[in-house]
Amino acid sequence: MSSRTEHAYVGWIRRFILFHDKRHPEDLGEPEVSRFLSSLATERRVAASTQNQALAALLFLYRDVLGRDLAWMTDIVHAKRPERMPVVLTRNEVASVLAELDGVEKLVASMLYGAGLRLLEGLHLRVKDVDFAGWQVVVRDGKGRKDRVTMLPASLREPLRAHLAVVEAEHARDLRAGAGCVELPDALRAKYPSAPREWPWQWVFPATRGYVDASTGERRRHHLHETVIQRAVRRAARVARIPKPVSPHTLRHSFATHLLESGSDIRTIQQLLGHKDVATTMIYTHVLQRGPLGVQSPLDRT
User: Is 143 a catalytic residue?
Assistant: First the structure.
């Protein structure tokens, strides 16, 4: 599991134990799990995805930690999954937001919009994943642990080359100082012992400061933290006076919508976004500027 998943699961298990007055999970079972999950929907009114995460954490606790299989619970009150339209910016609004950014923040935001990346997909890019010759970016271990290929915008090729030259020089200084390591996914560190210091495995957008990994003692540099980009994009939208709730993910929504406006095939957009089901991609047909389903109002025909 990723460290984020581990942290989330531990949090839900802790809440479950506190909910039942600190009783040991061994003494609890299906009724207590159902009561806890139902309370999330009825009392805390959490989103359906949040309730599903809590359920996954408790199933992991009982199956993989305590060695017990929980019987299927039919009496859970499920949180309702709201159907909301994504926030989409016009092309001019995107340009206005990007104009208020500079440096690495602008480059990351431009990648999110230009390649349709999720925020963490952009920040998790490694040097080897950027294919300048093939004009493409390889997204590794995206949502659902799937890899995919998306476009590398022509307008970002040279800015990205210049950025990587600066990052490579910084990496060389780290190596001379006895640092320069990077976290590797899964068990690759054991398979390739020298890889953590090699240039192809470094983050495209590294953090400004390093840290010492407690488990290995290595002096590493993490990728840029997502809150840096989140704050920068929100601030840029506010300065640009965009009357919409704008986040980095809004740039991904805008990418898909603008491709549809340009006549791109829905299946192609599905592949670029990494959606498992084309129905997920179809939501962007409802937010085109031509109105719901692209139908013209009869008022405009009079």
Answer: yes
- Cα angle for residues 260, 264, 267 (degrees, 5° grid): 95
Catalytic residue among 126, 171, 252, 253: 252
Is residue 51 within 8 A of residue 78, CB to CB? The reply is yes
Q: Which ranges of the chain have pLDDT less than 70?
A: 1, 73-75, 77, 79-84, 144, 186, 287-302
Residue 252 falls in the annotated catalytic set: yes
The model's pTM is 0.77
Does the annotation count 275 as an active-site position? yes
Q: What is the pLDDT of residues 77-88, one digit of tens each?
A: 676 666 667 889
- 82 φ/ψ angles, rounded to the nearest 5 degrees: -70, 145
Q: Which of 35, 143, 197, 234 is labelled catalytic? A: 143
State the catalytic residue, choosing from 113, 118, 126, 253. Answer: 118
Residues in CB range of 265: below 8 A, 6 or more apart = none
Residue matched to tokens 């390591």: 181
| CA–CA gap between residue 91 and residue 258 (Å, rounded) | 8
pLDDT digits (tens, 9 = 90+) for 80-116: 666 667 889 999 999 999 999 999 999 999 999 999 9
Strands (E), 104-255: 130-131, 136-139, 148-151, 206-212, 219-223
**234 is a catalytic site residue:** no
Per the structure block, which two tokens stand in for 68? 């017990």
